[in-house]
Design brief:
Elements: E1 2-6, H1 13-23, E2 30-34, H2 45-54, E3 58-59, H3 63-70, H4 88-91, H5 95-106, E4 111-113, E5 117-120, H6 135-142, H7 153-161, E6 164-165, E7 184-185, E8 195-198, E9 207-208, E10 212-214, E11 224-229, E12 234-239
Parallel strand pairs: 1-2, 2-3, 5-8, 8-10
Antiparallel strand pairs: 1-11, 4-5, 6-7, 9-10, 11-12
């Protein structure tokens, strides 16, 4: 079976369908995984969630989903669309259905692990950067969810928001303009064997290093939506139909 990994969709349902067509995706024969940020800034968050569910896609939690969970969006009885730009479709749902989608997102892990790969939204935790990490430590991280008591806030936001950090994993105070030393892209400090697939960094674009694949190519900003087929080590892209968010 092909493992297909897709970059940040952010509610761009049309482009996701275009990409699946380009891939000739078959939910009975392929496995689909997303890097997180599957919803929020684009035009069709609800339709995107329904599409993912219909094709049995799996994903890690992104910072946009985390932000909604953290602010209790899915628990609000009557969220005002004016307070949640681009989420009018989710605001219009009945309370119980919106809560159900919140539970669906809460089930997403912060990290997925295969013998040859990690999948994370933004950055792998420093505890996993070097060779020789015990299997028990890897399994502990893979079991974590947003609400897990075994992970603190700094660790959660490291996995979902980090771009630059130092060699000890201390995050840079800001990402733009690019910070100076000792800060560098987090993957500069990664030395283990498993390849890491991540997103979250549209400004950086497609990253194809020896040990990483960065798949956020800014679809919601008018760029493209990108997939990487692990078994073929092949990139597939479709252009955005429009820029939903100005750059």
């Amino acid at each position: 079976m092909r493992r297909i990994f897709v970059g940040d969709v952010q509610g761009c349902r049309i482009e996701l369908e275009m990409l699946l067509d380009e891939l000739r995706f078959d939910s009975a024969a392929d496995l689909l995984f997303l890097v997180g940020d599957v919803i929020r800034r684009g035009p069709e968050s609800l339709a995107t969630l329904r599409l993912l569910q219909s094709v049995h896609a799996e994903f890690v939690l992104g910072n946009h989903e985390a932000h909604l969970l953290d602010r209790g969006f899915f628990e609000q009885a009557h969220p005002e669309p004016e307070e949640w730009p681009s989420l009018g479709d989710l605001c219009a749902l009945g309370h119980e259905e919106r809560q159900a989608w919140g539970r669906y997102l809460r089930e997403a892990p912060l990290l997925r692990v295969w013998p040859d790969l990690y999948l994370v939204h933004a950055a792998l935790p420093p505890a996993l950067w070097n060779p020789g990490v015990a299997d028990e430590e890897i399994e502990r991280w893979a079991a974590l969810r947003w609400d897990s008591p075994a992970i603190d806030a700094e660790e959660k936001w490291f996995l979902t928001t980090t771009r630059y950090c130092d060699a000890d994993g201390t995050r840079s105070p800001a990402d733009w303009p690019p910070p100076q030393e000792p800060y560098a892209p987090w993957d500069s400090f990664y030395h283990a064997e498993r390849r890491v697939v991540f997103g979250h960094w549209a400004r950086r674009g497609l990253v194809q290093g020896p040990s990483v694949r960065g798949l956020d190519t800014g679809c919601v900003y008018g760029g493209s939506l990108t997939a990487w087929i692990a078994e073929e080590d092949r990139i597939v892209q479709v252009p955005a139909t429009k820029a939903w968010i100005p750059t």
